[in-house]
Amino acid sequence: MIQNKKLVKMQPKKLVATGLATVMLLVASVLGAVQLGQYPSFLGEATATGFTPKAYIVVGRGAAPHDVVGAIDLGADLQQLSYVTKTAAGAGPAQLTGGVSLDTADTKIYLTDVTNKAKSILTATDLPTFLKSGSVEDTAGTKYEYSQYLKIGGKTIQYAQPDVASGIKDPAYLIKLGTSPSADAYLVQGWVSFTKPFNASNAVGKELVLFGKSFTISAETDGTNLVLFGTTGKETIQAGETKTITVGTTTYTVQVVGIIDPSSAVISVNGIQKEVREGNTYDFAGTSVYVSDVFYYKVPTETGSVTVSIGADRYVFTNGYAIKRGPAGNEEEVKGTSVSLAASPQALSDLKVSFDAYTASPAVDYIKAGTVWTDPVFGIKVAYNGPATTDSEEITITPGATNYYTIAFTDKYGKSGTVSWAYDADPASAGGETLADSAGNAIHVVEGEDAAVNEYVFVSAGNFPHMLKVISLETGVATQKVTFKDVFSGTEYKATNSTGPTTGMLVIDGQQYTVTFGTNKVSIKDSDDSKTYVYPALETKYGAKIAFTKPVNIPNGTTVIFPTGEKTITCTGTDEDATPSGSRVKYNMTSIGSGVCTVELASTDYPAVLVVEEQIKDAPVRDAMIFYVSDDAANDKRLELASPVFTHASDNAYTSVGTASTTVSHSVTEWGTKVVYDSTAAGTATITYPDTQVYHLVAVGENPQFTTTAAGVTYNEAAPLLQSIAKLDTEIMDYQGNIVDTAAVSNYHLVLVGGPCVNVLAWKLVQDGKLSSNYACGGPAWTPGTAYVIAVDNAFATGKIALLVAGTTAADTKLATDVLSQGKIPATYTGSSAKITGTIASPTITPV
Questions:
Q1: Longest dimension (CA), the chain
Q2: pLDDT value of residue 29
Q3: Residue extents of the structural domains in the chain
Q4: Which of 159, 240, 334, 363 is the most exposed place for a label (fewest CB within 10 A)?
């Protein structure tokens, strides 16, 4: 390798200074099947259980810092490749990074709750970096320490149409915002508290780090206005020096032309020259430049420097007003902000900035589930994930034909079934709706009522509910017999008059029932004669209660068990209240004489399905939904499903929310039940009922993100690399071109950062004829501003790739590594080599 070392010494001074080499072109005959658009996937091995990177990043022992930095970026790409494939066993809790959740283990945020229900203030304990305490010194050297907090406002979690005026009609979970923030009404408030009053006018040019963002105090600060500049693109430039500063995707050329005195200088930005003074901002053809410091030195030579911030935003904080942003005299209000200063910028003890809806026209006054809201000044983020993942079941109510309706669900025993429950023999004639199956067989909803063959009864003792159909019955004989069939499981239960002439015993799920035979009829009742089930409820897989209702006659003095509580029936008049204590479902009773009351739901006397939710976490409340049918004898001559009725208070459900369809409405309850009602044709209802009460995920921080994994889903989990992925070139090959690490070249692909002048492996490719000698170190092919990415197949071992990433200068090599690591080579690029010119913001990539 002596020859190559001599070549390095012979390079022009420019190349020696950068420590970089000319990039070689790949000999066409040795190009492999590698497609650069698939980088970096071809640098590893996929298996059934994951993906493992199989490559080393190789830099020359004497490589320039740009080479090393670029190699680090490429190494990060390899790290991201490493994963193991797993299958989720169940829907696990959401994982949060980059922020802090606003709920706690004991206090969750449910629909209709406010965002500060569990946490109203965040401290450095919650967000150690983002809310880190700081200090600032004035010109006298006095230090002023300050603490930072985030106060959380009480914004409501809703289910609503986001913005009907803008055409966004389909409802969504959202956090409702306001449009006029104040010290008392806000989504989030940034609070900076100083340990002692601070005169900001005495700290011009000093830095304040507020909520992770750096600001410089402007000389414009006075007794009314606190003026701060963001320190974007901050650089110190020596007199006579020119620097290239990149902010975002824009590059600026800044030169300090000269220093005038200790506070003023002349600078040039992209060729525009101006005299500037420290502590002020200037406009250079639409680019805001803040000059924070001017330094003037007389010894050892007369010189100086200027500290500038390119593209720096200027912010004006005035007590009781919105923040203003922009150059002096041309500021604009930052909508949705409000400032509170105590007492003034020259005796500052507290700075509070409140944020709420802003910046859209019309104003966006919500945060939609699955999105992140970001304040326009500090970058405080509020992430609203929406409902946490939970298992749920579906209950559907649909017409079976023009004269009956069905309901389908899975019961608590895991058995699925469909029950026809509303029937009208002639829906073309008004009236006639009844609680019966599709053939008109009655469904009895009072415990102990007589039932004939093909009719239905319920048993409920011990919380083991069943709906039974009488499928055979023999009465009027010595041995009377009955067979009941469970509507859902299909299990048959048989009983005879074994305990008396007309009575027998039946045991179901360990619960004992008395069966009583009459003439062509039978009844069944549990052992507690003091109470009677009315509208006995079945239970679904995840705990909802489902009951069928219609007006029924109950003797005065009977203690009944409704699905929502107990009540003793005693009535003397019309529509008296029969609602159990604490029940959200209202019942009425009306005397019909002879000591008998007609009992019915207060909301309807038509055949209905009552769906009762479980008790919500924050109150002893079990709300319900009522679905009833009536016939449309005049027009469509059919049974039709009416809009569902909800027992929920207006502040704990969102019912009949409109959608983009005029026939479809949504409703969502605090429990998390969602009802989709479609009035198209006869009408249907789809009820999605969650296993547990659904809570909502809200987080605040610098970059809060929620991730969840659903049950049964195959996913890739990042895996750590279990070995080094970086090597020096001389760890693999010595200067004579001898391989010293056989395992590395035999088992791994090699990513060579830097050309033959600085990387012995790249030099070896030239020596072996795998890179053209025209592009060797010092060869005629290199030109400034050019870089190459070249894949050499079978480079040092069969089946192994050497990927050369190098440029003519240090900046060119960094351009090549940036293009790769930032994914700038399109996935559709099919070549195995590429020439790269331009900038990282706008690279030109062409085949070679």
A1: 127
A2: 31
A3: 2-85+722-846, 109-229+314-387, 232-310, 447-528
A4: 240
Long-range CB contacts for residues 420-428, cutoff 8 Å, separation at least 24: 421/548, 421/607, 421/609, 422/607, 422/629, 422/639, 423/607, 424/631, 424/639, 427/402, 427/403, 427/631, 427/632, 427/633, 427/637, 427/638, 427/639, 428/631, 428/633, 428/637
Tokens of 226: 């606190």
- The model's pLDDT over 731-776, given as tens digits with 9 standing for 90+, comes to 999 988 999 999 899 989 999 998 888 899 998 998 898 988 877 8
**How many C-beta atoms lie closer than 10 Å to residue 686's C-beta?**
14
Residues 6+ apart with CB under 8 A from 186: 151, 153, 178, 338, 354, 355, 356
Low-confidence ranges of the chain (pLDDT < 50): 1-32
| Dist CA 297 CA 305 (whole Å) | 9
| N residues, the chain | 848
In this predicted structure, what is the pLDDT of residue 54? 86
Amino acid symbol at 129: T
pLDDT at 810: 81
Distances (CA, A) of 350 to 206, 226, 337, 346: 18, 12, 16, 11
Nearest to 181 by CA among 347, 359, 381, 384: 359
Specify the pLDDT at position 192.
98
End-to-end CA distance of the chain: give it in Å, rounded: 28
Distance CA 544, CA 648 (A): 15
Among candidates 610, 583, 617, 584, which has minimal Cα distance to 694? Answer: 617
Q: Is 234 helix (H, G, I), strand (E, B) or coil?
A: strand
Compute how many other C-beta atoms are within 10 angstroms of the C-beta atom of residue 710. Answer: 11
The pLDDT value given to residue 359 = 54
CA-nearest of 365, 363, 339, 336 to 350 is 339
70 SS3 class: helix
**DSSP letter for each residue of 442-460:** BB--BTT--B-TT-EEEE-
In which element (H, E) is residue 284 found? strand 280-284
